Amino acid sequence: QAKRKAAFGSVGRRIPYRILHLINQDGESLGNMHRAEALRLMDEQGLKLVLLHENVEPPVYKLMTGQQIHEEQLKRAEKKKASPKPGVVQKELTFSSAIAKNDFETKTKQIALWIEKKHHVKVTIRQAK
């Protein structure tokens, strides 16, 4: 869980930078400002400050609601799930619904071999004419 928060950036009042670039919850840039001013805006609007880009000068922070933070974390988790993991090989086979018995047996043997080798296997079945 610590890694997931680190990937999304810090949330809340701890800001190690004196000057930061602030974006409001609608995505509009509020420009560069001192962290005290950003914290005052955060308190006034009842929002949280989230670090978006740390490797730029000044770092970019965004004011977000708790709901927006949650949705963004879900999006990033989905994207991470969808991307293939390094070292994992994905194999894909397409079957026709009118496949002959011996072809089917050959393909199932091939799938069994791939699974033994810890490959991810994706099987697609097409409907024959």
From TrEMBL:
Superkingdom per UniProt: Eukaryota
Biological-process GO terms, alphabetical: mitochondrial translational initiation; ribosome disassembly
GO cellular component, one term: mitochondrion
Single GO term (MF): translation initiation factor activity
Classification via Gene3D superfamilies: Translation initiation factor 3 (IF-3), C-terminal domain, Translation initiation factor 3 (IF-3), N-terminal domain
Family to which this protein belongs: Belongs to the IF-3 family.
InterPro entries: T_IF-3_C_sf, T_IF-3_N_sf, Translation_initiation_fac_3, Translation_initiation_fac_3_N
Gene from which the chain derives: Mtif3
Transmembrane segments: none
Protein name in UniProt: IF3M factor
Keywords assigned: Initiation factor, Protein biosynthesis
Annotated Translation initiation factor 3 N-terminal domain residues: 11-78
Phylogenetic placement of the source organism: Eukaryota, Metazoa, Chordata, Craniata, Vertebrata
